[in-house]
Amino acid sequence: MRPSRHAQPASEPDVSDMAWFIPVLIFLARIVDVSIGTVRMILVIGGHRLQAACLGFVEVIIWALAVGGVIKFLAHPLALLAYGAGFATGTYVGMMIEDRIALGYRVVRAISATANSAISSELRLRGFRVTRLEGTGQAGPVEVAFCVVRRRALPDLLKNLREVAPDAFVTVERADRAEGGPFPADIARERRLWRSTSLIRK
């Protein structure tokens, strides 16, 4: 007896047979790959080519696994829900990771509230490198102090600014790259020296 020439259609996966851990795996995979993607984009902007490429390699593999799980169980609402929830959670986690590693630089601009301010000189005494400009505000002459720091040093600089000039108008801008200048060894050395001398004075 001849075999039938008509090929049997491939059986589609029964979504009712989906194991309970499949949505969990999809959710976790999306968290990991979106978090990696967020950090990778920051590395790309900062010019870290090799690190960004390595993260991209890992990211796309995990993404393929997550998408494969969703396609296989496309009709199951839990799989779709896990995929969407993992993307949202991964975005949040990626931003938290980026805050922790604190890549890049920040440009801090402080404008004095009075003409007799000494923001630049006070910050220099505390070990920061500051560029001073003279400006004119609505009420008259003002001092404008510029400072470029690594992002991880930003909280320390803002803390010192609040101590030196609590009434100053301060803005912070992103600087993806900084070349030349004393980054970062001699600034850190000067900061340690200022801290040690301030402790001796106390």
Question: Which series of helices and strands comes N to C?
Answer: HHHEHEEHEH
Major β-sheet, in short? 4 strands, antiparallel
Number of helices: 6
* Order of adjacent strands in the largest pleated sheet: 2-3-1-4
Class by alpha and beta content:
alpha+beta
Number of strands: 4
Question: On the 0-100 scale, what is the average pLDDT?
Answer: 80
Shape: elongated
Q: How many separate domains? A: 2
Strand content: 15-25%
Distance between the first and last residues' Cα: 102 Å
Query: Roughly how much helix do the residues carry, as a percent range?
Result: 40-55%
Q: What is the radius of gyration?
A: 27 Å
- Poorly predicted residue ranges: none
Describe this structure in words.
The protein folds into 2 domains: 84 residues; 84 residues, Alpha-Beta Plaits, CATH 3.30.70. Helices cover 54% and strands 16% of the residues. The chain contains 6 helices and 4 strands, in the order H-H-H-E-H-E-E-H-E-H. It is elongated. The model has no long low-confidence stretch (mean pLDDT 80).
